[in-house]
Amino acid sequence: MNTYEVAVIGGSAAGLSAALVLSRARRRVVVLDSGSPRNQPARHMHGFLSRDGVPPADLVAAGRDEVARYGSELVDAVVTDVIPNGTNGFWVITVDGRRFAARRLLVATGLRDELPAIDGLADRWARDVLHCPYCHGWEVRDQQLGVIGGTPNAVRYAQIVRQWSHDVVYFTPTGSLTAIERAELVARAIGIVEGDVRRVVIEHDRLHGLEMTDGRAVPRDALFVPPRFVPNSGLLARLGCELDDDGWPAADSTGLTSVAGVWVAGNVANPRAQVITAAGEGSTAAIAINADLVAEDVRDALHHRAIARASN
């Protein structure tokens, strides 16, 4: 039987950071990972102190090596279900039918990015179509930048992108801007292109610009897109965790959900968490999980001691 004290579902920054802390606390840990991280298309990650510019895959590989050195087990598998085992913990079930028992769970399954339905946009994702200026703004600084608007807070997002270039164009559906938003964009010399975007234009495997449905072509070197973030919270829903209308779990400052014994960390609960943030959240959750296990160990020890005394 595969029995552990903690099962970590998701083996990127949040999950591996938690596994590292827990394994160093001498807990028996299994990390189950599907091998499809959100940042897989990105060539490099940025803003992670001492790891700036490192390919995301290299960070994961190093993290897996570190976790394995402390005795955690790494399992490449897709988790399809998590079920309370009826006594003290949970069953974690994988797509190939394997079953793992754990006293506590950390769900770090991340999120997925839903992009606007613009022809060719998804093919350039994390290359020259970007979502986070703090992650990628420096690399495209002073270039011709575009921002896809039309969503809540998109104007504010464009104002942030403006920090990295004096040449920014905001693309938005006709009639979507308020007078105040238009004035704010004009005040900082952000160009406004109103209408619908038909497709991204690629030349020599590089973004060349955008083509509008009315035939206009607007040259751009890179494009920032605020995607719709969708949490991978299906497992949490099946466990009965409290979720909001968009699927985001309710959790306390340590990541503890509304279901006892279940924690979350990283993008599955925090859509704005960068890699370094997710790693920190994993560490925070791990410390809370270990403390919870210690409290249970104390209760169990007292119970067994009382039984021993009663039998003498």
From TrEMBL:
What catalytic activity does the UniProt entry give for this protein?
Answer: [thioredoxin]-dithiol + NADP(+) = [thioredoxin]-disulfide + NADPH + H(+)
Residue ranges constituting the FAD/NAD(P)-binding domain according to the UniProt record? 4-281
What keywords are annotated for this sequence in UniProt?
Flavoprotein, Oxidoreductase
Specify the superkingdom.
Bacteria
One MF term in GO for this entry? thioredoxin-disulfide reductase (NADPH) activity
**Protein name per its UniProtKB record:** NAD(P)/FAD-dependent oxidoreductase
Recorded source organism is Kribbella pittospori
